[in-house]
Amino acid sequence: MILRKQGVVNEDMISKLSEALLLQILSCLPIKVFIATSVLSKRWRTLWKLVPKLEFESTNHQKFSENVGRFLLSHKAPVLESLHLKFFHNCRAIDIGLWAGIAFARNLREFVLDHRLEAKIKFPSSLFSFNNTLVTLKLKNSVLVDVQSPVCMKSLRTLHLHCVDFGNNASFRNIISGCPNLENLVMCRDYPKNDLTFFIVAPSLKRLSIKDYTGVVKSGGYTINAPSLQYLRIRGISHSERCFIENAPELVEANISNVSPVINERFLISLKSAKRLLLDLSPLEVMFPTGAIFYRLVYLEMYTHKLEWWNLLALMLDSSPKLQALKLIDQSQKSDKDCVVGGKWNQPKDVPECLLSHLETFVWTIYNWDREEEIEVATYILRNARRLKNATISTRPIQYKELSKLEERYKMLMELDGVVRASNSCHLDNTIEPVWDTYGRSVHPTCELGSLNRTDINNVNL
After folding, report:
1. DSSP code of 79?
2. What's the sign of the alpha-carbon dihedral 257, 262, 264, 268?
């Protein structure tokens, strides 16, 4: 193709690109756009039929089903990398089965079905066994899965089930058992009508993420048996559900939040092989196992907005002899945290082994300089961590109405900076966050403790 403009001949450099690169470019365009390229030249006439990634989004039912079917029948790519179907109107299960069947005949590797309507659509159960190449399957929103017999998806590695409903426990069990090479499972539930217990028995599973909004569930939960599991994320399991981890000896990282009511001794013991833990739990609701030791734990991240969180910290420090990095985080930007009023830090009788021999990094984000228990925790760690190399403590921003506390904050942080540390090589970086006005705008820049003096405090302009 040659482009002519004002008597100047410009050679079309795009058409000189390799077919693989052109197809990659077309895959990034909407279907209507890359079909339109067929009029550019003879080379482009059938190129659109080889695009390996297809995404159909329907906002209007009229002629949509007919157009999708016609397009897929015209498609000639030997390998279809992905097919995404997103619906904002009612769609028939028979149509989905037909389209998916055509795509599977093209050696489909990724299939995504997103049905964004209140009325459920039943996913054709035959599709669970109608392929040998599918690597990724993602079912989202108003999709009903009812599988009454075992399936066979030997190639499947990734399965996402986002707000999907299941006919019964057997439906989920039949799917998982039919995926012997499954490595990544993501589950999200949003107020289901039935109470199910999900038995996740997956020998090859490496990553598992569970996120629940099931506040109305009366029973059910999860039982996990995954001997190859390396990464686990669980968030938001309700008070009445259960969660058991029967087998996870290869666990490397676990992120556990908002599940305190179901955390028991057995659950925490199942995390003992983890090297990294991220915990957002209430120590008043957690049953901490006696004598539990996290021998492999080197990184611990904890949130500090739950009642008496420091007691859980003390237990974790005492149970993690090889801990090298500790990070504390507060989600709240406010100083009047009702959930932690009236607490008292009781330091351990004996200094934990990790402070004596291994802890090298200590980070505290949104440190509340005006809370006595937080001052005591920070002081305790600085005074007892003999191998500490770096400590970074940042305070929460002061609100406009709290401007009178600015000088007090500076004084308290200077006292913390003056704490005699167990480690002579420790560098303490205290960061003062900016002052915020009533509209949430910063009126004083962030600065390090050493760069803010009394003149700076007196000259803050609002």
Report:
1. S
2. negative
CA distance 32 to 137: 25
Q: Are the beta carbons of 365 and 404 closer than 8 angstroms? A: no
Which residue in this structure is represented by tokens 């020998």? 203
Residue in the structure block whose two tokens are 């619906």? 87
Instruction: Please check whether residue 272 is in contact with residue 250, taking contact to mean a CB–CB distance below 8 angstroms.
Output: no
Residue 185 lies in a domain: no
Q: Which residue range(s) make up the domain with 319?
A: 298-462
Q: Is there a domain that residue 389 lies in? A: yes
Residue 177's φ and ψ, nearest 5 degrees, are -70, -20
- C-beta neighbour count of 13 within 10 angstroms: 8
- Report the pLDDT value the prediction gives residue 30, as an integer from 0 to 100: 62
Provide the residue type at 326 as one letter: L
Report the C-alpha gap between 423 and 387 in whole angstroms.
6
Measured CA to CA, the distance from residue 455 to residue 62 in angstroms comes to 70
Contact 298, 361 (CB under 8 A): no
Within 8 A by CB and 6+ apart from 214, the residues are 189, 190, 191, 192, 220, 236, 237, 238, 241
Q: How many CB atoms neighbour CB 421 within 10 A?
A: 20
> In angstroms, rounded to a whole number, what is the distance separating the alpha carbons of residues 10 and 3?
5
Establish if 39 belongs to a structural domain.
no
What pLDDT does 97 receive? 83
pTM for this entry: 0.80
Give per-residue burial for 60-74: e unless 16+ CB within 10 Å, then b. eeeebbeebeebbee
**Count of the separate structural domains present in the chain:** 1
pLDDT tens string 146-178: 888 888 899 999 999 998 888 888 899 999 999
